[in-house]
Amino acid sequence: METAITWAPGRFGGVTDYLPWREAMAAALYGPGGFYRDPAGPAAHFRTSVHASALFAEALLQLAERERLRTVVDIGAGRGELLTALHELDPRLRLLGVEVAERPAELPEAISWRRTMPGGLTALVIANEWLDNVPIDVVEVDPHGVPRLVLVHPETGEEILGPEPTAEDVDWLQQWWPAAAGQRAEVGRGRDEAWAALVSGLGAGSLAVAIDYGHDLETRPAGGTLTGFRWGRQVAPIPDGSCDLTAHVAFDSVVAAARLAGATSIRLTTQRAALADLGLTGGRPALDRARTDPRSYVAELAHASEIGELRDPDGLGGFSWLMARR
Ligand SMILES: C[S@@+](CC[C@H](N)C(=O)[O-])C[C@H]1O[C@@H](n2cnc3c(N)ncnc32)[C@H](O)[C@@H]1O
User: Fold this and answer.
1) Lower CB density within 10 Å: C or N end of the chain?
2) Between the CA atoms of 160, 166, 169 and 174, what dihedral angle is there, to the nearest 10 degrees?
3) Contacts of 2 (CB under 8 A, 6+ apart)
4) CB of 73 closer than 6 A to ligand 1?
5) Whose CA is nearest to atom 14 of ligand 1?
6) Taking all residues of the chain, what is their mean pLDDT, rounded to a whole number?
7) Cα–Cα dist 244/227, whole Å
8) What is the mean pLDDT of residues 297-311?
9) Which residues contact 53 (CB under 8 A, 6 or more apart)?
10) Residues with Cβ < 8 Å from 173, sequence gap 6 or more?
11) In the predicted model, is pLDDT for residue 247 greater than 60?
12) d(CA 141, CA 187)
């Protein structure tokens, strides 16, 4: 699960400085001075379910209890926000953050922190908005119908067409993201491999949950989804380390990879449905309570609006939950 970072300008037919997106993204996010090394952490730049409400952690605690799993691993743990919330809810849980960034200074001592996933653990493994940050290559089909790697300049974001992708990537594209002349596609092979490595390394009885925005063969966007985020705003994806770089996840290919990796059962659902299943439904409190019991009315209203945000079908509720049992 270590991200291999290579930096070899000038390899592409004498063109200097341009890199395939996968390499540019790996260096910009995780290399020295990379975006995710910044102590500010992801929460300074965008809002995930973890930041939206403590109810998200409560739902995951429900899931751990339902599965009778006492160890929870957070892959791509950010600054440990989810683990800290889980620790507060149940200090007896064994908690581990797997994260490229350094251990946050304020993290409770009881929470373990590592750069890589240890093998053979039996655990509930949560990967919230991790796969969308696993580097991808971008391919554009040229006017002759030939797929070409898109190369990007790491400082300006300028793109040029490079060589043909590898045979493995061409196979992946044919199966999962067929594209016509002029269209772009994002090669999710590295994500399939990352998820397969995670699932195959788990001990029996584990449940791994990938939560992210994504698409499938029927909903693939022809132009791709690669974009940037900085300080709460969507920005052009320039791989200079100054912004997040993210692309939606091809969930159907990740599901197939999990099957091959030995998942014993797989469920793909929406966050909206998964949270309802874990008891997070909740409507607005009756209006007359505002007069009869204003304090609890306000508390219940806040609770309902947090659930509403987590389950919004046009927002976080529309995210996919891929649950792979091992
Ligand atoms: C979008 S943030 C999500 C943070 C947190 N899970 C949340 O939901 O708020 C993605 C995180 O994954 C981490 N990450 C990406 N690739 C990783 C890898 N191979 N191993 C460990 N952490 C990784 C990044 O450093 C970053 O903190």
Assistant:
1) N
2) 90
3) 115, 116
4) no
5) 76
6) 92
7) 8
8) 86
9) 306, 307, 309, 310
10) 139, 147, 165, 179, 185, 187
11) yes
12) 13
